[in-house]
């Protein structure tokens, strides 16, 4: 590779440069450019395999990826993660996202509940009395007339109890360990005909090479209400009730917090503290969301309250600090109540749904303040007519006070009533997701990429996904699994004449 060629002068070549200089130059290249450079000659192939190259690239890249780099992560893992993410990003968020491949799997049972995609390879669903697991790596060439084989992970036991599986939740911890949990509600009918409800958490094991199994890790007492939602973060998993619009200021909240980092301890939250009274305790506009970080549990309560100028929307944001990992105490028999440490009120902000952690909490070494970023769908009242948009909420928890500074940054317009799924978050501000909306011409599914460090105008890029299925079939489909890190999307088609089938689409 010639850099300078002049008459009477000796040629200057990159191959003759010191290795330290080459490492600096390569640090300015993109992931795919480094891969191509390694294919040119033996020297660059050796330099491309240098761990410092990929560690530096992993640390500074704006591609969605798990936390890292860590010494426990092999060089091959850093390379494979970045290269695959770069290939996905090459056509993700442009004008049209075109999948690389797609295949379908027929499902035998008529009454099923999809639970989700686990570690890119496994798909779990629930029937009336069991949990099934499909190994998707076996069915790339499966004929549509065949029913796929599956393994049974869990079987209901006894006629006096029945189970309602809720969903699969997955996360990466701050040390890059990947965890998967199945949230299940058990209902036991007592002799007096009353129903006792408990929430059981199962760890999903064996996802690396199989076979997959379920291990019970905790039982959360949720007898007061039906199971509603599950939210997972890098440290804690929250299980909430399904009555989101019910707020009581005299009772603890209907939420249980499972601490994955402190011997699987369970916490609860204190009652709501509201200076403004919602229009009604059961008002349909009242919504409650939780976000789990490595240091705090964030509560976001949006409601309509009366003012001198008429009803106005208000969002109450509260932060509850998780116990320190170095704090030692005896294991309590009852759930501990977390302490409210910070709060603020944001006027004229109405959060609609889909709250996700975009940037994990981090402490500023100079000020001691804790900062984090949440992404959500909100109603943008400054537009005519009002429209739904994604919004970034940059929260700063002040070290010396109990205040929260909230910076609102609108990301971009979205369909008014889309279903938003964030399938990959690096916890440092990079994320990849999808949103869907049913139209007269079919179900519109769009891909998007978020970057918390980008300018507001360029923070989000989106594209329509060009699926292989027809528009007529798309009306009967629903998104049931998404792995944004490795670029896999699962859609379930419900057909009365031929049952169900699962369409698996890969983008890399």
TrEMBL record:
PROSITE patterns: FBOX (PS50181). Pfam families: F-box-like. InterPro entries: F-box-like_dom_sf (IPR036047), F-box_dom (IPR001810). It comes from the Eukaryota. Residues 11-57 form the F-box domain. This is F-box domain-containing protein. It comes from Coniophora puteana (strain RWD-64-598).
């Amino acid at each position: 590779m010639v850099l300078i060629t002049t008459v009477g002068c000796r040629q200057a070549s990159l191959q003759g440069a010191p290795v330290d200089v080459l490492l600096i130059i390569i640090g300015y290249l993109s992931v795919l450019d480094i891969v191509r450079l390694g294919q040119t000659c033996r020297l660059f192939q050796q330099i491309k395999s240098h761990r410092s190259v990929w560690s530096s690239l992993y640390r500074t890249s704006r591609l969605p990826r798990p936390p890292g780099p860590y010494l426990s992560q092999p060089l091959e893992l850093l390379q494979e993660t970045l290269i695959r993410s770069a290939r996905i990003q090459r056509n993700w968020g442009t004008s049209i996202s075109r999948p690389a491949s797609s295949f379908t799997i027929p499902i035998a049972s008529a009454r099923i509940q999809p639970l989700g995609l686990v570690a890119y390879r496994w798909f779990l669903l629930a029937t009336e009395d069991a949990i099934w697991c499909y190994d998707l790596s076996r069915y790339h060439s499966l004929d549509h007339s065949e029913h796929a084989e599956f393994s049974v992970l869990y079987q209901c036991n006894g006629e006096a109890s029945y189970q309602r599986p809720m969903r699969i939740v997955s996360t990466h911890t701050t040390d890059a360990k990947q965890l998967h949990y199945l949230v299940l509600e058990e209902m036991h009918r007592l002799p007096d005909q009353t129903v006792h409800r408990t929430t059981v958490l199962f760890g999903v094991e064996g996802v690396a090479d199989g076979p997959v199994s379920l291990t019970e890790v905790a039982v959360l007492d949720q007898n007061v209400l039906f199971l509603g939602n599950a939210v997972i973060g890098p440290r804690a998993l929250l299980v909430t009730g399904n009555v989101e619009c019910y707020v009581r200021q005299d009772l603890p909240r209907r939420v249980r917090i499972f601490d994955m980092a402190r011997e699987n301890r369970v916490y609860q939250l204190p009652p709501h503290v509201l200076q403004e009274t919602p229009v009604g305790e059961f008002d349909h506009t009242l919504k409650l969301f939780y976000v789990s970080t490595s240091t705090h549990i964030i509560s976001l309560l949006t409601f309509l309250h009366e003012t001198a100028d008429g009803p106005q929307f208000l969002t109450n944001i509260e932060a509850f600090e998780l116990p320190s990992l170095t704090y030692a105490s005896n294991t309590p028999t009852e759930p501990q109540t977390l302490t409210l440490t910070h709060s603020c009120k944001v006027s004229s902000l109405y959060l609609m749904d889909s709250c996700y952690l975009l940037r994990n909490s981090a402490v500023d070494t100079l000020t001691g303040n804790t900062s984090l970023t949440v992404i959500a769908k909100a109603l943008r009242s400054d537009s005519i007519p009002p429209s739904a948009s994604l919004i970034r909420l940059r929260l700063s928890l002040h070290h010396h006070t109990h205040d929260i500074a909230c910076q609102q940054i609108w990301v971009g317009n979205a369909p008014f009533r889309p279903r938003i799924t964030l399938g990959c978050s690096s916890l440092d501000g990079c994320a990849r997701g999808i949103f869907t909306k049913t139209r007269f011409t079919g179900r519109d599914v769009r891909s998007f990429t978020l970057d918390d460090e980008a300018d507001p105008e360029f923070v989000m890029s989106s594209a329509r996904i060009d699926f292989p299925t027809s528009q007529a079939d798309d009306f009967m489909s629903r998104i049931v699994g998404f792995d944004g890190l490795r670029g896999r999307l699962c859609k379930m088609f419900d057909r009365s004449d031929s049952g169900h089938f699962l369409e698996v689409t890969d983008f890399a």
